[in-house]
Amino acid sequence: MRRLGTQTLRSFVIRQRQRLRESEIAFILLALAAGLAAGSVTNLLGYAAHAMQRLFYGLSSNRLSALGEIHHPWRLLALPLGGLGLVMFNRLLRKRQRAPIDVVEANALHSGRIPFLDNLVISAQTLISNGAGASVGLEAAYAQMGGGIASQLGKWFKLRRADMRTLVGAGAGAAVGAAFGAPLAGAFYAFEIVIGAYTPASVAPVVAAALGAAFVTRLLGIEPYLIASSADRVLGVGDYALYIVLGLICALVGIGLMRLVTFAEGQAQRMKRLVRWKPVVGGLLLMPLAMISPQTLSSGHGAMHLNLALPPALHVLLIVLVLKIAASAISISFGFRGGLFFASLFLGSLVGLIYATGLAMLPFGVALDLNDAALVGMSALAVTVVGGPMTLAMLMLETTHDFALMGVVLAASLVSGTFTRETFGYSFSTWRLHVRGSIIRSPRDIGWMLSLTAGRLMRKDWTSVSADASVQEFRNSIPLGSTAKAVLVDSQGHYAGVVATAKAYDPQLDPDTPVAALAVLTTNVLTPTTDIRATLKAFDLAAADELAVVDGVGRVVGVVTERHARRRYFEEIEASQRALFGES
Where does the chain cross the membrane (predicted)? Predict the structure, then answer.
């Protein structure tokens, strides 16, 4: 009886999986469930981080970065203590052979599949870092858990590759949207940052997840992220030009920030004796910065609202900007975990305030609204660091409810994003992966390229001849017309080059000539793990139409033709495009 019940349950699960793979409505409902879970986890993580900050810094109602000053300097010991907590946590993970997979990397390389332990590791590290007051945002934990939960659901239901990527993007975007109470921003975060494409097939599930997460935030009574803006304004062509210049300035600041983080990380790695204790050292370095200005602590949301309500003097803004950039670079380069999305919003508001204040001091009679300049700066700098101009445009719209401002926000964001792509080519997340040696430049799916290897493309019915043979022996073993080329191998099967059959039958050749003298491509080979991009590049560099595949010791295991490799490449591209647009 029990066995019958188990079989019935298994059959039911299989039927539901098949239904989910075939039904768009069922997939939308699954995305909605992922969004509800992402919204719940996002609010839980936010509450936990703020509870840690209240405990460490004795906060009452204020946010950490909105403190006017640190009344009890000893509380800043939370920074190195948080670093020590990270060191201890990382020691528990010392047997892991690889770095955790984040959502962008998962969608680009691994078809959206994320080991659930990786989600817990990244979220715990981010929570410790932000809770201790390091200058990093919680968005890394939000997106990771949202996308990770979605990935787990996708694995349970055995979703197809394209559906899995869409679901992971929907979960990550829903989590970020829940943090702001901004479902449209969350949806575009999924499209632009995690999925890498906007397609009709992905709209409904992504929006359903974002709305579900925002519903959880409202249900919990958490106020959405709102910023007051000027209602009475008339924006002319001159204003657009000034804000476009602000977008370019923000792009330069963002690129400088990303390069500074990499430079600081390189310097930190040179501290051989202190590598294990980097987070503790980083916490100690952050303490004097926080003493000068508490606005360097955490991601800076509280400080941003404070500065918008009571704009400081220009010299104060400049000092805070420099300190915040230094704090962000130190935090990330010395091992604290987190993102720069939330911090880039604060930095952008500072750049915007500095820009507008500086313009007002010039004798040209040019003036920009401080609040508007701060909002445009927020979006432009965040686009540089994170990518996704529509994400930031929707975020500004949902947090200000100001349609009139959207034109200049979008213009500055597009200019900032375009300038960054042209001159730098990466967002912060893809730049970090690039520095680690990855080929990822966007969340676009390239996992199929890495799995389409020479080992899968090669044929094994190749013709070989001993490298010690003479031309006459070659002719005796390979009749003219039987094959276009032959692979030369030595006595142990090691590769020694390729000989064209027609060349060996040249009547002007001495039959006693060693056939090895006719060999070409003696150093141009592939390995079974060479991916399709490297394979096609190897064909171009060698100007060959056929290359041998050799194992780790140089023995020939197969042959790949350029024609077959290119045909398979275009077939996979076409299949990927069909899956992207939801075509069967």
Answer: 25-52, 72-89, 167-191, 240-262, 274-292, 313-334, 340-362, 374-397, 403-420
- What predicted TM-score, i.e. pTM, was given to this entire model? 0.84
Q: Is 22-219 a domain of CATH 3.40.640.10?
A: no
Neighbours of 292 (CB within 10 A): 13
Per the CB < 8 A criterion, the answer to whether 141 and 123 are in contact is yes
Model confidence over 394-420: pLDDT tens digits?
999 888 888 888 889 999 999 999 999
Cα dist from 37 to 165, 218, 221, 441, 494, whole Å: 17, 14, 17, 29, 56
Closest CA to 257 of 402, 385, 92: 385
Pairing verdict, β 525-526 and 546-550: parallel
- Is the CB of residue 213 less than 8 Å from the CB of residue 174? yes
pLDDT in tens, 436-450: 666 666 666 666 677
- Is 60 exposed, middle or buried (CB count within 10 Å of its CB: 0-12, 13-18, 19+)? exposed
Residues of the chain with CATH 3.10.580.10: 448-576
548 close to 487: Cβ distance less than 8 angstroms:
yes
* CA–CA dist 74, 77 (Å, integer): 6
Q: Tokens representing 221? A: 């009574």
- Residue range(s) in the chain whose domain bears CATH number 1.10.3080.10: 22-219, 237-445
Count of beta carbons in the 10 Å neighbourhood of residue 153? 20
Q: Which fold has domain 237-445?
A: Clc chloride channel (1.10.3080)
How open is the CA angle 115-117-122, to the nearest 5 degrees?
A: 105
DSSP-derived secondary structure for 182-209? -HHHHHHHIIIIII----HHHHHHHHHH
Q: Residue 301: left (phi > 0), alpha (psi -120 to 50), or beta?
A: alpha
Rounded CA-CA distance 159/381 in Å is: 36
Distance in angstroms (rounded) separating the CA atoms of residues 143 and 220: 20
- Could you report the per-residue pLDDT of 348-377, keeping only the tens digit for each? 999 999 999 999 888 877 888 899 999 999
CATH of domain 448-576: 3.10.580.10
Instruction: Give the residue among 412, 253, 238, 275 at the shortest CA–CA distance from 324.
Output: 253
Looking at the DSSP bridge assignments, the partners of residue 524 are none
Q: How far apart are CA 63 and CA 52, in angstroms?
A: 12
Mean pLDDT of 473-490: 84
